[in-house]
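Design a sequence for this backbone.
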């Protein structure tokens, strides 16, 4: 076996004695991730303890076949593999491991501003997971030259940066944070679809309803009170432009005012149940997604009254907000650009690529949100799987970056 080979199957022993089989182009890094509870739910039941078997494969598809074959073996046959492997002379054992790849741990950098509901959702996710992060304040309206140097065109708030990897949209950021730290989970096992779908509904329907209530002319006027007239007008013009060209429409305030109590009453009834501490029993992404539009309305006296009649909703909202924001430390946008420039994008995910029909690796593409803020990101398509697209792009100020965008709610087009 030669260490020049780039794909491996491996077995990891969990603390309870069970064996986990996986494949990777860097089994030691993979093992380190498993030790942090990442990369396989298997280790949520019992933590990873030792990398006990590695086998070199000719290429990725050979590794996939071998992984399937090993997974199909009986426990006794897997134990035999481990015994024979570890019984080999020590030198042989270490020679068969690939050289450890160089991986730098980068800080989580959130580009956001205080008043943004989606930023508040993301700050609470960071608090829920008790993560440390760097906070870069971005402008509320265009232009956002430093942010766009990283994203290549995506302008919405927030954006997460990890070294030279840029994550657009809070739904994808949630998945990145789950990969960063598996517990406490945002997608509790067995509830992944329900949680993601409820969050998607809240991030779209419920959020737009809340915005239409907060942007009623007299409410908006008092929200913008204190701003010079020109700045208030610039904000209004910016938000009008934000919705140009996208599929989303703000509901008329007249409709939202009539629909709002029905939704609040449903939420109230669900939360009044004895076990109604959180929407799906234990905390999940759904709580944070439903909470941020309510936080937005609660933040202004003219709209806070829309929540007043729902005591269980208020108690639940206080519980969600009590997760706090984790440990942020300010960073300037210039520093964040320097981090991107000096970093190398992380290796691409090992998950098999799911290319959308008609697209392939290396193609020049652009990707844009479908709903609003549809400014496209252009780049070279590197990876596509069920949840995300990754584009590579070069920027004069940010260097080579990988921009990660969600599949859902975004459209990919050939350039
Ligand atoms: N689907 C996006 C929506 C983000 C969004 O709409 N953010 C608002 C602020 S809460 C925004 O970008 N407004 C315009 C801006 O900040 O420039 C996500 O989940 O991140």
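Sequence:
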């Amino acid at each position: 076996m030669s260490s020049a080979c780039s794909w491996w199957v491996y077995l990891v022993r969990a603390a309870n004695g069970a064996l986990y089989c996986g494949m990777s182009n860097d089994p030691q890094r993979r093992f380190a991730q498993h030790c942090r509870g990442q990369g396989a739910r298997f280790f949520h039941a019992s933590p990873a303890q030792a990398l006990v078997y590695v086998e070199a494969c000719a290429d990725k598809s050979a590794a996939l076949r071998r992984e399937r074959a090993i997974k199909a073996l009986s426990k006794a046959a897997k134990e035999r593999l481990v015994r024979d492997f570890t019984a080999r002379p020590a030198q042989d054992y270490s020679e068969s491991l690939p050289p450890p790849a160089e991986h730098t741990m980068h800080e989580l950098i959130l580009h956001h501003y205080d008043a943004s509901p989606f930023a508040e959702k993301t700050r609470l996710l960071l608090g829920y997971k008790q993560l440390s992060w760097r906070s870069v304040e971005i402008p509320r309206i265009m232009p956002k030259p430093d942010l766009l140097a990283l994203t290549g065109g995506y302008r919405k708030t927030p954006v997460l940066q990890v070294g030279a990897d840029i994550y657009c949209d809070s739904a994808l950021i949630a998945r990145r944070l789950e990969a960063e730290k598996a517990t406490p989970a945002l997608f509790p096992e067995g509830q992944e679809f329900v949680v993601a779908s409820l969050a998607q509904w809240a991030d779209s329907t419920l959020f737009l309803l809340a915005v239409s209530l907060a942007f009623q002319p007299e409410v908006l006027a008092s929200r913008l009170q204190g701003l010079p007239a020109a700045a208030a007008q610039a904000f209004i013009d910016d938000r009008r432009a934000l919705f140009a060209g996208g599929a989303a429409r703000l509901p008329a305030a007249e409709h939202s005012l009539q629909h709002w109590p029905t939704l609040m009453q449903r939420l109230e009834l669900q939360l009044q149940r004895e076990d109604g501490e959180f929407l799906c029993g234990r905390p999940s992404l759904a709580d944070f997604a439903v909470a941020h539009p309510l936080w937005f309305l609660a933040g202004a006296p003219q709209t806070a009254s829309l929540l007043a009649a729902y005591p269980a909703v208020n108690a639940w909202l206080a519980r969600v907000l009590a997760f706090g924001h984790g440990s942020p430390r300010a960073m300037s946008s210039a520093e964040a650009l320097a981090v991107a420039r000096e970093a190398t994008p992380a290796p691409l995910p090992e998950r098999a690529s799911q290319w959308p029909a008609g697209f392939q690796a290396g193609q020049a593409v652009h990707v844009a949100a479908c709903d609003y803020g549809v400014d496209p990101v252009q780049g070279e398509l590197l990876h596509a799987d069920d949840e995300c697209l990754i584009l590579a792009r070069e920027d004069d100020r940010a260097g080579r970056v990988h921009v990660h965008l969600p599949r859902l709610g975004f459209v990919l087009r050939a350039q």
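The chain has a mean pLDDT of 92.
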